[in-house]
Amino acid sequence: MALLKEKPISSLTIKEICELADINRSTFYAHFSSQYDLLNAIEEEFIEDMVSTLNQYNFSKAEEALKMTEKILEYIARNSDVCKMLLSENSDIHFQKKGMKITQEFIFKNWITDSQFDQETFEYINIFVVSGSIYVIKNWVENGMDKTPGEMAEIINNFINHGLSNIR
């Protein structure tokens, strides 16, 4: 993670990783096949932990979306260093795609049954909302989380539910 603060994953070498971690290359290769494999393991651990945290709550009702968004943001705030690195330009886009999939599963799983949209239109709206939310969260983390998770959850949910007319 320290190296990703300095340069992109594509520029990292196994030698650099091993030197910083104070391990030899054979130890590294006993666990990972490449720097991308290591990054994937970090992403998977983060996602597993986040999903485990979110599974502690029952967010099956659409009206609970605000609370769910707040819980996601609280989790991100508690893990801001890892999240900042995983959302940075030096990481790769796969983490953001995984994040989009999880968000779709947790927040939007009930929208399609309550929606007047066909499946294809729903998918486009879903992608727009989720990817926009991820970039808002990325910006929030990069700005030092200048608003509370609750404030950010309100901004995101108000925009999703009411567009610009309800943003203060």
Short overview:
By secondary structure, the chain is an all-alpha fold. The protein has helices spanning 14-21, 25-31, 35-54, 65-78, 80-87, 94-107, 111-114, 119-142, 149-162.
CATH C-level label: Mainly Alpha
Largest sheet: none
pLDDT < 50 runs, ≥5 residues:
none
List the total number of helices. Answer: 9
Residues in β-strands, percent: under 5%
- The average pLDDT value, as a whole number, equals 82
As a whole number of angstroms, the C-alpha radius of gyration is 18 Å
The CATH superfamily name is: Tetracycline Repressor, domain 2
Distance between the termini: 36 Å
Helix content percent band: 55-70%
CATH level 3 topology: Tetracycline Repressor, domain 2
- Element order: H for helix, E for strand: HHHHHHHHH
- What is the CATH architecture term? Orthogonal Bundle
Number of strands: 0
Shape descriptor reads elongated
Oligomer: single chain
Structural commentary:
Helices cover 67% and strands 0% of the residues. The chain is mainly alpha-helical and 168 residues long.
List the helices and strands and how they pair.
Blueprint: H1 14-21, H2 25-31, H3 35-54, H4 65-78, H5 80-87, H6 94-107, H7 111-114, H8 119-142, H9 149-162
Helix pairs in contact: 3-6, 4-9, 6-8
